[in-house]
Amino acid sequence: FILFIYTHRMLPIVAIVGRPNVGKSTLFNRLTKKRNALVDNIPGVTRDRLYATIEWDDRNLVIVDTGGFDSSDKRELLDRIKKQVEMAIEEADLVILLFDGKTGPVLADEELLTLLRYSQKKVLYAVNKIDGPEHEHLSMEFYSFGIDKVF
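Predicted structure:
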């Protein structure tokens, strides 16, 4: 891990964050064109940060998968996952905050959004699990957070 960061620190770092089961690992696998991140319907499968170098728009960058952030769950394991998410945000140049369009905005999304606002990092907001144009209206609910642009 340390060697990876040392050899890749000159590259921009993009962290994917969100609450459990919003599709962070699926997005990571899609962007890396590999299946390195575990994907499961059970929350807590991703615990540590997972790094990969990708090429995007003729530029190399480091993408980081994180575990699901849920501050309401006080179990020790989830507290460690939360710390890993916070470290990923701290080291990132850009953060992708991924929301679940099927469930809509929830308190955990708002808490993560607040954490990101305090971090003063550049953030892209993306709504996942909207399958087809007929469901795109579901992303509108997330503008209630005061977000300018949702992808």
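Summary: The two ends are 31 Å apart (CA to CA).
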